[in-house]
Amino acid sequence: MNTTIDTAVIVIFSAFVLGIGMLFARTGRNLKSFFAGGEAVPWFIGGLSLFMSFFSAGTFVAWGSIAYKHGWVAITIQWTMCIGALVTGIYLAPRWKQTGALTAAEFIRARLGTTVQKAYIFIFTLVSLFIKGSVLYPVAKLVSSSLNLPLVPCTIGLGFFMIAYTAVGGLWAVMVTDILQFVVLSSAVFILLPLSLDKVGGIEGFTQHVPADFFNLLNGEYTFGFIAAFVIYHICYIGGNWTFVQRYTSVDSPKSAKKVAFLFAGLYLISPVIWMMPPMIYKAINPSLTGLDTENAYLMICKLVLPPGLLGLMLTGMYFSTSASANTALNVVSAVFTNDIYKGLINPKASDKKLIQVARGSSWVFGLGMIGIALMVPAAGGIVEVVLSISSISGGPLLAPPLWALFSKRLTSRATLWVTGIGLTVNLFFKILAPLLLDFKLTRGTETIIGVGLPLLLLLGYELWARSKDTTASEYYQYLITRQQKRDDAQIESPEEALAIRKQNRFGLQVIAGSLVFTALMLGGLSTFASVGGGITAGLGGVVLLAALIPYRASQRVQLLPESQQADKLINSNH
């Protein structure tokens, strides 16, 4: 891949993304603007950012490996995310917005108390560092494999780059990068797919050279029980993961929060078919990959069929979109530490300037932790094992109780800690101790069913018991008071603060529009160098250029003057 044009594409895009982070260096006035976009982020921006944050967690390496080994079941697994997002949009996303909380941890403190919040912050931070650290590993693996560079230096260097623009720019920097990578990757895959099919001899050549069960909805260890459990898991995960909750709380209303989740669902109905076909096609071209080598299937099909320039574009999109997931988690972990630990417990009277300093500093600290985790992923069996194992162990116990508390007035802090503790203990026993002490290991499906099902059964049992006693949690009454106070405080926002938030959001939309224009020009330029696929590349460049009008027009609708001045301006213009 070591060609001048591919390297140039990677360097130019990297510099452009870092520049985006620097553009937002002075826009974060306080925690609300830095971590939640002033709670006025357009819903379509939030939805696309949510999609990229989730989509990039291992699509190319983890799901690409499953698609190569087992075929269509990789698409079936990802369709569970569509179902989870639909349920979230109907029931959960608007509830999160109605809480008035900046972060999920803030809601947990208000509804379930400080003790539960402290325990959850510790567990969430640990889990996030492991999962998102493992996501940094495939980024480094992609770059090191394509550029023939050592893995460890790549991991460290890319980790520092990832931390830099997240720590500087906050939520808007992360979201703009998400949108840019969505466009870049979508363009690259729409070029990759027809070239891959052409390489294998079309649909007929593809289907004739893969195993007979390759297009089964279920395959291998991914059974019906696993898929059913994964549906429940993704309802909890998409609806309750603190990273995604930030997307529902950063928009302007519960209705917009619904739209964020519904857009995510729509994208995950269509995109898995498009994204998973290239590694499936590579199975027909080269069926000999085994072990951790299957994690390279996506990269190998790209290197095989994409011409110079377009290969650099695809690698850049894979690199940044995968790191986008880690960036989002880094932003949320930093938000939780700054808002709920430093401000909530250590220094409640801290100034906005001090809080922003803490936010940026904590981004660096947690980012370095992610780099350390990424370096250990190969020894843990690869990203598929790490991500699925951590999810099955912590997902249900950590996510289910707060979601239950969104609807229940009976759940207490003591019951929450018991449910979480029992769930984690049982899951850890079956994952770690049972294979060592009893020579017994659960299947992937059973592991997921127990991991998600046990906390839900415990919560249901407690709810029925509390209802039979007709008891209401004392924490619930305190939560009602806190929620009302927060709503009252939100109504007295100063005109200066409201103006600053509108300026920030207008600027963010303009940067997105400019980024799309830059991407369109890049695609147009690359089309002139492409030996194959030049026409498709140029056409996609035109589509991206037209798409830039959407955020630009949205930015023009952001009012920077108070309504009274807007009215005066309109009257004067009529005269």
TrEMBL record:
Coiled coil location: none
Single GO molecular function: symporter activity
Annotated membrane topology: Multi-pass membrane protein
Name of this protein: Sodium transporter
Species for this entry: Spirosoma arboris
PROSITE patterns named among the record's database cross-references: NA_SOLUT_SYMP_3
Keyword Translocase: no
Residue intervals passing through the bilayer: 6-28, 40-66, 72-93, 119-137, 149-172, 179-197, 222-240, 260-277, 297-320, 363-380, 386-405, 417-437, 449-466, 507-526, 532-552
Keyword match Disulfide bond: no
Keywords: Cell membrane, Ion transport, Membrane, Sodium, Sodium transport, Transmembrane, Transmembrane helix, Transport
Gene Ontology terms: biological process: sodium ion transport
A GO-annotated cellular component: plasma membrane
Localization per record: Cell membrane
Similarity field: Belongs to the sodium:solute symporter (SSF) (TC 2.A.21) family.
Pfam family, one: SSF
